[in-house]
């Protein structure tokens, strides 16, 4: 028994005429008769009987038709779903640094959907810290992750897609607030609010101070940049942090860092060991075109 025989059986049951059914199936009438005979022989019962110039289902044929109809419907739905996925439809699961969920990720997703109006594409959005995002990527919870530079790994593919600006923030009444820019070596006498070692930014900022050749005095550590903003605004210390527009509304002075030279990036990360669906691949290719050609 094969799929062709089941489709032939369903068509003949509908047409109740061998010639008409064969024409609809684009096969010869002898081929259809042979297929039905093989099917009946395998099942051990007769499915059709003569009815004038046509044919009709037997009692067993009616019962079998119900099973075949349900089975073909399930199969056809599955085939159609696979074809939709092949056309680039389906689900895209994104993991990203929480701060990227304000503009960066929504802008990219919205733009991608506007360029593919005829495709049924859905997104899931999850914000977190870099270590948790990479763990989720390895556990196949996400298709794409957007974070600061991860530690080198054989199972991950990382592509820089956007620049991230680091600045020094100090309270507005701080001695350093008189500056218009800053060298980090001139800040080492003041206590720092620092990202803890659970964050990807800790590694990035540590690299900056390695270039200076000295480590800052760390007064407090946290993994939330909003907490760092608040602590600096209320005089608990100074901090190196990514530039965010919200800083303009706080009691802090924002100072560009002129030394040491540094260029940071946001990375798009994929799991090399995971199959990328056409939808995910299309979105990834779109991001590379959209951002890297700017």
From TrEMBL:
One of its GO terms (molecular function) is DNA binding. The keyword Transcription applies. GO terms for cellular component: protein-DNA complex. InterPro entries: LysR_HTH_N, LysR_subst-bd, WH-like_DNA-bd_sf, WH_DNA-bd_sf. Keywords: DNA-binding, Transcription, Transcription regulation. Residues 1-58 form the HTH lysR-type domain. The keyword Transcription regulation applies. PANTHER family: HTH-TYPE TRANSCRIPTIONAL REGULATOR CYNR (PTHR30346:SF28), TRANSCRIPTIONAL DUAL REGULATOR HCAR-RELATED (PTHR30346). Belongs to the LysR transcriptional regulatory family. This is LysR family transcriptional regulator. It comes from Schaedlerella arabinosiphila. The lineage of its organism: Bacteria, Bacillati, Bacillota, Clostridia, Lachnospirales.
């Amino acid at each position: 028994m094969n799929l062709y025989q089941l489709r032939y059986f369903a068509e003949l049951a509908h047409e109740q005429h061998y010639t008409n059914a064969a024409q609809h199936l684009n096969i010869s009438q002898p081929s259809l008769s042979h297929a039905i005979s093989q099917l009946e022989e395998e099942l051990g019962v007769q499915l059709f009987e003569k009815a004038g110039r046509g044919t009709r289902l037997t009692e067993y044929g009616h019962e079998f038709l119900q099973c075949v109809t349900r089975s073909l419907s399930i199969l056809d739905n599955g085939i159609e779903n696979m074809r939709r996925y092949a056309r680039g439809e389906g689900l895209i699961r994104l993991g990203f640094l929480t701060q990227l969920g304000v503009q960066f990720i929504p802008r990219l997703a919205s733009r991608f959907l506007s360029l593919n109006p005829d495709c049924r594409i859905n997104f899931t959005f999850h914000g977190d810290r870099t270590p948790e995002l990479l763990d989720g990527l390895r556990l196949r919870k996400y298709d794409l992750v957007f974070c600061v530079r991860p530690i080198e790994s054989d199972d991950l593919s990382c592509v820089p897609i956007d620049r991230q600006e680091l600045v020094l923030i100090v309270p507005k009444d701080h001695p350093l607030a008189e500056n218009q820019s800053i060298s980090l070596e001139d800040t080492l006498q003041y206590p720092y609010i620092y990202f803890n070692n659970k964050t990807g930014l800790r590694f990035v900022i540590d690299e900056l101070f390695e270039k200076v050749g000295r480590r800052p005095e760390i007064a407090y550590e946290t993994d939330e940049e909003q907490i760092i903003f608040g602590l600096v605004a209320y005089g608990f210390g100074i901090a190196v942090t990514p530039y965010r527009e919200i800083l303009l509304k706080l009691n802090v002075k924002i100072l560009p860092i002129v030394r040491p030279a540094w260029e940071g990036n946001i990375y798009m990360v994929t799991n090399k060991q995971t199959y990328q669906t056409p939808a995910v691949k299309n979105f990834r290719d779109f991001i590379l075109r959209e951002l890297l050609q700017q």
